Amino acid sequence: xxxxxxxxxxxxxxxxxxxxxxxxxxxxxxxxxxxxxxxxxxxxxxxxxxxxxxxxxxxxxxxxxxxxxxxxxxxxxxxxxxxxxxxxxxxxxxxxxxxxxxxxxxxxxxxxxxxxxxxxxxxxxxxxxxxxxxxxxxxxxxxxxxxxxxxxxxxxxxxxxxxxxxxxxxxxxxxxxxxxxxxxxxxxxxxxxxxxxxxxxxxxxxxxxxxxxxxxxxxxxxxxxxxxxxxxxxxxxxxxxxxxxxxxxxxxxxxxxxxxxxxxxxxxxxx
Length: 271
Description:
Elements (H helix, E strand, L loop, with lengths): L8 E2 H8 L3 H10 L6 E2 L5 E3 L3 H13 L4 H9 L3 H41 L6 E5 L2 E5 L11 H11 L11 E5 L2 H6 L6 E5 L5 E3 L2 E9 L8 H11 L2 E13 L11 E10 L2
């Protein structure tokens, strides 16, 4: 279809419509990558409205970090097959980048939530509140018969983290089978778990006792006695596993003795 002179756009107007700088359009013309539809007697560049589609496709490929040389090859020898091959390759790269960005976003959101919980907490108060589901990933059983040390168990978790699909960038806590197990050996959780929004395990929603303690990993200070007293005073019994997580740890606190541990366990009226 013939292009009438009245249909042509000046480089200034074309630049305004496409958002592509005039200097970039001149650069593309000099490279032979994207030439104007016509030139005036004064040498001015004029573009067809149809070329808006073409420059948008070039701009897209450029935004996808494709080298100018490759874009030029596509433009000069374009076919549906060639473009499909290029887009398939780029789709795979973008999918991997998207997964990584989404994962990093989950880490940031999870860390923010726990830090905010710690900032809002009154560490001297034990209370019973309703908690929503919390998605987690539970790691392997900790074998303290093989080694009695907390850090040996944690090191083992790190060595098998990928196998259990545990992202160690996410906060890691201790999973105790019940309240008594925590009281007897607070530094020896049955499992470690990660707080993971995409985890297939979870701490079920329910009415939970929530308590805090300034302590180092594996330590509880007087918290076990305080929790026992709270349970007796309020005629409560504990249900199921107990979870410990450090909402403030080495990421935000310099002094290890000043880390802030959160303890949660489901409770119900004693029968």
